[in-house]
Design goal:
The chain is built from 9 helices and 3 strands. By secondary structure, the protein is mainly alpha-helical. The chain has 2 domains: about 140 residues, Phox-like domain (PX Domain, 2-Layer Sandwich); about 150 residues, no CATH class. Helix 7 packs antiparallel against helix 8 and helix 8 runs antiparallel to helix 9. This is Putative sorting nexin-30-like isoform x1. Pfam families: PX, Vps5.
Length: about 325
């Protein structure tokens, strides 16, 4: 596939397939990419990717575009889902979320043109595996990021980005409250549906014992059946209409926080390299002043002193270049 604009192709995720390997069992999804050609016939690429491949793509996009908000992936299964992660409902829900994830990437003006996305959408399994194996591991990148972030909170951060962080934190807190309340309501609905089911059975038994009250009891039973049907419908749509959208919003707030943290780390790197350069420059000036001091007993000390000055003269250009590079990165981060 040649370089193409983000409006020139569309992607679809479907056809989940279970793989039973001796050392691993997983689900892969078919990804079909149709590329529109102006002069030639449309091209089509069909590949299969598993969830870990999507993780690789997102981590590489974060590594390549550290100051952009990379869309969030659906979360890994929790403890309960681990027991049922091969059920049709779970697989279809995950497939729909992965499809949405790719739609967001392909509609993004930057991510859609990335060679990483092109590789993900078009490379055959062997080629893709070779690239993913040669890349740094996700854990290594996360560890490196955490080491870079150490101490950056002592930096005076840009008020504009701090306001975004505060807004995101408040939004996240409110979404968590809504999610918790919705989960409690869902739990109570499950209990209510069970109680209504028990009440319906009791009324049906009562019908057998009191035929003279059949008209009234039939009305009560029909009302319970109607309410029970409504409750079951609410229970069925909870996951797709409430739980999944809330979790998706929460994942997006986390993605924004991650992008802000990476931007703050860039500022911290710039300021720390700038301060280190200033400290080295002052140290060099002080050593040069002391080097001009006359005295017979200072000969050995002066030799050591001149070695330090020479070392600083070699280090300062490197540090100044690093400061300039970090400043450029900060400017890009602030624009992003």
């Amino acid at each position: 596939m040649s370089t193409f604009d983000f409006q020139d192709y569309n992607v679809n995720v479907d056809n989940p397939q279970k793989h039973l390997d001796p050392m691993d069992t997983y689900i892969s999804f078919r990804i079909t990419t149709k590329v529109k050609q102006k002069m030639n016939e449309d091209m089509q690429y069909i590949v299969r990717r598993r969830y870990n491949d999507f993780l690789w793509l997102r981590s590489r996009l974060i590594e390549t575009f550290p100051t952009l908000v990379v869309p969030a992936l659906p979360a890994k299964h929790n403890v309960l889902e681990q027991l049922d992660r091969y059920s049709r409902s779970f697989i279809m829900a995950r497939m729909a979320m992965l499809h949405t994830y790719l739609q967001r990437l392909t509609s993004h003006p930057v991510f859609s043109c990335s060679p990483l996305l092109k590789l993900f959408l078009t490379a055959k399994s062997a080629e893709f595996m070779m690239h993913s194996k040669n890349s740094a591991g996700l854990l290594d990148r996360i560890t490196g990021s955490l080491q870079t972030l150490t101490g950056y909170r002592n930096t005076l951060l840009c008020p504009e980005f701090e306001n975004v962080r505060q807004y995101t934190n408040h939004l996240s807190a409110k979404l968590i409250v809504i999610h918790d309340v919705a989960a409690k309501i869902q739990k109570e609905r499950i209990e209510l549906a069970y109680d209504i089911e028990e009440g319906k059975r009791a009324v049906e038994n009562w019908l057998c014992l009191e035929p003279d009250l059949s008209y009234c009891l039939h009305g009560i039973r029909d009302a319970l059946v109607s309410v029970l049907g409504s409750q079951k419908h609410l229970l069925q749509i909870y996951s797709t209409n409430i739980e999944q959208p809330l979790e998706e919003y929460l994942s997006y707030t986390d993605a924004v926080k991650e992008a802000l943290n990476r931007r703050d780390a860039i500022q911290y790197n710039y300021e720390s390299s700038r301060d280190e350069t200033a400290r080295k420059r002052i140290e060099k000036e002080q050593l040069e002043i002391l080097d001009n001091t006359n005295g017979f007993g200072f000969k050995l000390w002066k030799a050591t002193n001149r070695d330090k000055i020479k070392k600083l003269q070699q280090d300062l250009p490197i540090l100044e270049s690093m400061v300039e590079d970090n400043h450029d990165k900060l400017e890009i981060a602030n624009e992003g």
